[in-house]
Amino acid sequence: MHLPSDQQMAPEPDRTQQRQQASQPRMSWFSRGLSFGLGTGLVVLFVLASTLSPDPSGIGTHEQLGLPPCGLHALFEIPCPACGMTTSWVWFSHGHWIRSAQSNLGGFLMALLALPTLAWCLTSAFQGHWKAWFPRPFVIAGLMAATLAVTLIQWLCRLPI
Question: Is 49 within 8 Å of 69 (Cβ atoms)?
């Protein structure tokens, strides 16, 4: 059967894409704002880290921001678990990932996880629904615990014996 050109049917939209979008609940405005804030905050951290110079000693980079020296290091001359964290982010933002991991492995892992997180948060906030997966508290807590464990293990290995 031939239909006149003005009565031809428009192409049918992709049903798979429609089902996927329908199965993803819309984010509340609060969630969108929180997601946007987190993504933007991570962008700011990377931009800020890219403007700093890594301290040659591996610790003390944060002092360029006007922050005081590490109290544990100043009092007892041993590094704290976070010593080298800012330096790690600076090396990471400059593209020196091995130096980043050497400065503070936990900081490197945080920066590495921050890249997809910022993209995911900003994309989700702008599109109004969680992209790829819904944030599960146990997954987020597990990643945080693993990063903390790596940071503490590296710190214990660095303590003078």
Answer: no
The residue assigned the tokens 């214990």 is 156
Alpha carbon 39 to its chain centroid, in Å, reads: 8
| CA atoms of 3 and 5, how far apart (whole Å) | 6
- The token duo for 72 is 């544990």
Domain that holds residue 108: 28-63+70-158
User: 13 in a domain, yes or no?
Assistant: no
pLDDT per residue as tens digits for the range 60-92: 899 899 998 888 888 888 888 888 899 999 999
Q: Which residue has the tokens 């989700």?
A: 124
- Has residue 10 been placed in a domain? no
Structural domain count of the chain = 1
Among the listed residues 24, 36, 25, the one whose alpha carbon sits nearest the alpha carbon of residue 123: 36
In a domain, 7, yes or no: no
Residue 13 has pLDDT above 90, yes or no: no
- Residue 87 lies inside a defined structural domain of this protein: yes
This prediction has a pTM of 0.76
Is residue 161 helix, strand or coil? coil
Alpha-carbon distance values, 69 to 31, 82, 155 (Å): 36, 12, 17
